[in-house]
Structure formats: C-alpha cells, structure tokens
C-alpha cells in the first residue's frame, strides 16, 4: 500500500482520533439502552460512526484510484479570523444585540475565505440574521437582546 492522497489520509486520522476521543469520553456518562437512552448513548455511537467514517476515508487515501495530492502549509490567518470572529461575537452580543452581532460574525468570518466576496458575505449575514430570529427567538422562545443596549 502506498499513500496517494495525503489530504484524505490526515483527514481520516483526524476523524478517527476525534471519534474515538468522543466515544471514550461518553463512556463516563450513563449509557442506558436503545429504548431508554442515557446521556452517553448518543455521543458514544456518534463518535464510533465518526471513527468508522474516518477509517473509510483513510483507507480510500491508500487505494490506487485515489488522486495524488499534497497538503499545503497551515494558514494561521484563517484560524485566527474564524476563532476571533466567534470570540468577538461572544463579547459583543449583549452590547450590540443579536441582529448586529450575527451579521458581524458572518462578515468577519467570511474574510477567512480565499474566495471572499462582500456581496455574498452581506447576503449570508442577512439570511442568518433572519434565520436566527425565526429559529431561536420565535421558534424556541430564547431571550436575547435583539438591538444594541444603548438604543
């Protein structure tokens, strides 16, 4: 066997590690049965399925049909933009409200994309503001500040 697709190989390794980690952690909760699931039942089986899918991806990277690829260098800018925008959202949510915070989260995290377009980011931001309102405020009845606190 020869490693032909490095990207799929490392993705498979990551899925296996995360899946097994979640399954192992879920064993510290009560499992229950399929009829009466405990809090550890779903994460345990979900972790095992994730690990199984990772094994399929990993083995697929070793097949002769796999396209040869290489893994580019790790881009820290993308990581900081995505994680930073989520942290920014958490900090400003109570001050700016859901509408503006969600919109800023989408636009700032969109900057991490190599195919960034301001029109697409704004359209996604507007869609997710409306979706957040309908799903979380109207649908689930959660209480969040909708507008900035200074208005």
From TrEMBL:
Protein name (database record): Membrane protein
Keyword Membrane: yes
Ranges for domain DUF1468: 10-145
InterPro entries named in the record: DUF1468
Swiss-Prot/TrEMBL keywords: Membrane, Transmembrane, Transmembrane helix
Highest taxon, organism lineage: Bacteria
Organism, scientific name: Bordetella trematum
Leader peptide range in chain numbering: none
Annotated transmembrane regions: 9-27, 42-62, 74-92, 126-147
Keyword Transmembrane helix attached: yes
């Amino acid at each position: 066997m020869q490693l032909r697709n490095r990207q799929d190989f490392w993705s498979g390794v990551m899925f296996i590690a995360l899946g097994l980690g979640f399954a192992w952690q879920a064993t510290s909760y009560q499992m229950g049965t399929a009829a009466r699931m405990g809090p550890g039942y779903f994460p345990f089986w979900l972790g095992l399925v994730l690990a199984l899918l990772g094994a399929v991806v990993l083995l697929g990277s070793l097949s002769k049909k796999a396209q040869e690829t290489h893994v580019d260098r790790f881009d820290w800018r993308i990581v900081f933009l995505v994680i930073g925008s989520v942290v920014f959202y958490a900090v400003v949510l109570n001050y700016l409200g859901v509408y503006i915070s969600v919109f800023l989260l989408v636009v700032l995290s969109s900057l991490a994309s190599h195919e960034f377009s301001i029109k697409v980011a704004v359209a996604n931001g507007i869609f997710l503001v409306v979706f957040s309102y309908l799903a979380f405020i109207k649908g689930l009845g959660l209480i969040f500040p909708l507008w900035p606190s200074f208005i």
